[in-house]
Predict the structure.
Amino acid sequence: MAPHLRMGHPKERLKILQNYYPNIYIYIDKYYILDACHQAKQRKLCFFPSNTQTAHAFELLHIDIWRSFSAVSMFGFKYFLTIVDDFTRYNWLFPMHNISKVRISVINFVTYAGNDFLCMISFSKCIIHQITCVETPEQNDIVERKHQHLLNVTQTLIFQFKLPTIF
């Protein structure tokens, strides 16, 4: 068994030990990467980035819910649902008082898209709900970036015009 496996991967300690005891040969491979060490330090689940390509609008929608931790809006909204179309990158925002309104907001959006844009959202009769790994916003990066953009613009306007945070 390699010394770094028995001693908990103390690479620097092995070098010091080798300096004090030159008669003992300790092999340290600087190119050897121990998978167990990296897995133990890992804080997120492994995932693969999406490489989905869309050919037309409403084929794939990125949806996420954002919750305000700092303030409730003037009309009492604590959440907003963001929907981003993968093909056009056009987005829709739905403010909500509570999270239980997500289902009805998505149903209303599907109806709206069908009526106003004369298109059927892919799988609208059987919407496929794909979830992301916990604490991996990178998997839903399109809508996460949209959230950041919206929040940055909102904060800039609030600071610029010295408005209270309820706006």
Remarks:
- The chain has two domains: 3-41, 61-160.
- The first helix runs from residue 3 to 6.
- Residues 79 and 98 are 7 Å apart (CA to CA).
- The mean pLDDT is 78.
